[in-house]
Structures are given as structure tokens and as C-alpha cells.
Amino acid sequence: MGREADRYRHAVLRSAGFLLNNQFDKRNAYFLPLPDEAYGAFRHSLVDGRLRLPAQVHAIVALCGAFDLQTDVMAAKKKAEKESGESKKPKIKMN
């Protein structure tokens, strides 16, 4: 991966972490009228705690994209390690 691609990948993963930190759970849903029904939902914004359907959809799509990106990166690293490991193995001739 190039330096520029790594910068973008890190930004996407940090953004995913930000989204997950703004997800309602037992710690931060206590003020909602029905907190048990809000667990797992995402805030509309940092200053707006309403639960809006478009915010849920955007958050889920973004997290799926981050997951796909990380999965692709991990697969590429594993493939590169495998290829470099095979080329470093000593070749043994059997007579």
C-alpha cells in the first residue's frame, strides 16, 4: 500500500470508530424516553440526539464500507506475506 492509501485507510477507520462512539448503549441512552429500544442506534449528530432513519442508514453503510476496506487490506497483506515467504524458502533438490 502506498503512503496516500494508508492515510485514507486510517481516516476511514478513525471515522468508523467515531461512529461507533456515537452509538447509543446503556451508558448514554439513559435520557431517552425508551432507552432499551434505542440501543445500537446512532445519534443524528453530535449535538442532535434524535434517532433519524437517514442517520441510521448512513452510519450502517459507512461501517460496512470500513469493514470491507479493512478486510481487503488484511487479505492483501496476507497474500503479500505468503508470496514473500514462498520466495525466501530455500529450494531443495532431491537426487
Can you describe this structure?
This protein has 95 residues and is mainly alpha-helical. The chain has one domain (3-82). It has three helices and no strands. It has helices at 3-21, 35-38, 53-88. Helix 1 (3-21) packs across helix 3 (53-88). The longest helix is centred in the C-terminal third of the chain and has 36 residues, at 53-88. It is elongated.
SSE order = HHH
Helix percentage = 55-70%
Shape: elongated
Major sheet? none
Q: Got a strand count?
A: 0
Strand content: under 5%
Q: What gap, in angstroms, lies between the N and C termini?
A: 41 Å
Compute the gyration radius: what is it? 21 Å
Average pLDDT works out at 88
The number of domains: 1
Count every helix, treating DSSP H or I runs of 4 or more residues as helices. 3
Assign the structural class, choosing from mainly alpha, mainly beta, alpha/beta, alpha+beta, or little secondary structure: mainly alpha
What topology does this entry show?
Layout: H1 3-21, H2 35-38, H3 53-88
Helix pairs in contact: 1-3
What is shown here, in short?
The chain is 62% helix and 0% strand. The protein is mainly alpha-helical.
List keywords for this structure.
95 residues; elongated
